[in-house]
Design brief:
Strand content: 15-25%
Number of domains: 1
Structural class: alpha+beta
Helix content: 25-40%
Order of helices and strands: EEEEEEEEEEEEEHHHHHHH
Shape: globular
Length: 343
């Protein structure tokens, strides 16, 4: 049976959280709200789980709920001991047996823009984001691009000797880490995100045409890139979820390889993953303009200010971006390797 929306778990969350002891024998529980939207097209009736970011095994679910009919969610983390709830959190959205989504691309297999994508095409799709709370409520939208950036952060923290400690990272350092990860995702996609934080950009559901920005080229472009993954070619015996996950996994392999060694020969070390990323990039490049046209056709309004999305990944530029971040000579300097940010 489906878990009720707004379900919460009263659990102790000592991992990655700053403790604030209460001397009372009967402490007052502390709470922290997390709210956002699951946007790959809006994912309806998907499961949302919250973990401490340092809980890499996802051993303890701190809170859980489901997305509503608009793909939105609100969940509350509770600490029964009364400890302050602060630190970095991983929010994961998983499509399960009841999840549906609206087609937000020009075509989605045999479906068209605005049609409902059935559950069997979505089961197993997992998207994520990573956010930080100083004890206050946080907004945490989840989409394919936050997933790519989150995977980059987790990969950096997992490198042996990395200075990035997600269990002790400060708010200021975490912001730097998000900006670095955003720049890496931008380098993969061929979009300049050196002055952006992908976690704070308003990436909306492109199937709701009137919400797509006609003034902000970065927000519009990332919205359309996120939507474009719904149009990926689906191989026989596969599903749309399989193809999206395959791409996201390939991006993770390429990113992790470079974070471990910016001078790595991607073709030799991660050739299969690089092939998947490049093949998908070509589809993204074509589809972005087609979705923009579909949006304008529906609204009858202004053209969408789309930044040019190249058909190939610039491997040299990507390696340079990662290398500069690790060494601190470019970007915001602080995600990768032993030169990362953490405390």
């Amino acid at each position: 049976m489906k878990k009720a929306i707004q379900t919460t778990l009263a659990v102790s969350i000592a991992l990655a959280l700053t403790a604030c002891n209460n001397d009372n024998n009967d402490p007052t529980p502390t709470t922290m709200d997390i709210a956002g939207g699951a946007v790959k097209g809006a994912l309806v009736s998907a499961t949302v789980n919250v973990y401490a970011a340092s809980d890499t095994a996802k051993a303890t679910i701190l809170a859980t709920t489901q997305t509503d009919a608009n793909g939105d969610y609100t969940v509350q983390v509770i600490d029964a001991t009364g400890a302050a709830i602060t630190g970095a959190f991983l929010i994961e959205v998983v499509a399960d047996e009841d999840t549906t989504m609206i087609c937000d691309a020009s075509v989605c297999g045999t479906l068209s823009y605005g049609d409902t994508i059935p559950n069997e095409e979505l089961t197993g799709l997992s998207l994520s984001t990573i956010s930080y709370s100083d004890g206050e409520a946080i907004d945490a939208d989840v989409n394919s691009l936050t997933t790519m950036a989150t995977d980059s952060i987790l990969a950096s923290a997992a490198i042996e000797g990395s200075a990035l400690d997600l269990g002790n990272v400060t708010a200021a350092s975490f912001l730097t880490v998000q900006e670095d990860a955003s720049e890496i995702v931008g380098a993969i996609l061929g979009v300049d995100l050196s002055e952006s934080n992908i976690f704070a950009i308003d990436i909306v559901d492109a199937s709701k045409a009137d919400t797509v920005s006609t003034t902000d080229s970065i927000a519009a472009t990332l919205t359309l890139i996120n939507a474009s993954l719904t149009s990926l070619d689906v191989a026989d015996g596969s599903s749309l979820a399989d193809e999206i996950v395959k791409y996201l996994d390939a991006v993770e392999v390429v990113t992790a390889t470079l974070l471990a060694d910016p001078d790595a020969n991607l073709g030799a070390v991660a050739g299969d993953a690089l092939d998947v990323v490049n093949a998908t990039q070509a589809q993204i490049s074509d589809e972005v303009d087609m979705i923009a046209a579909a949006v304008v056709d529906v609204t009858g309004g202004d053209d969408i200010p789309v930044t040019d999305v190249p058909a190939d990944v610039d491997e040299d530029a990507l390696a340079d971006t990662v290398g500069d971040i690790i060494t601190g000579t470019g970007g915001t300097g602080g995600t990768g390797g032993t030169g990362g940010t953490g405390s």
